[in-house]
Specification:
The chain has one domain. By secondary structure, it is an all-alpha fold. The protein is elongated.
């Protein structure tokens, strides 16, 4: 699967979850949404770290030339 599509999907889900969390009233519902948001953020972090590492390697190759 395309990493860009995965990241876009995660960003969209994060947006939906944040909007849904702002509408809930009970602490239990807020806790459930916060766990979802935390998992989505951690998943995005994996992709962003990978992209950062790939950029570092590409930049390193350019410096050697």
């Amino acid at each position: 699967m395309d990493p860009d599509k995965i990241m876009d999907g995660l960003f969209k889900e994060l947006d939906v979850s944040l909007k849904a969390m702002s509408k809930v009233k009970t602490v239990d519902e807020k806790l459930a949404h916060s766990k979802i948001i935390k998992n989505l953020c951690e998943s995005l972090g994996v992709f962003l770290n990978l992209a950062s590492e790939m950029m570092d390697y590409e930049g390193f190759d350019e410096l050697e030339e």
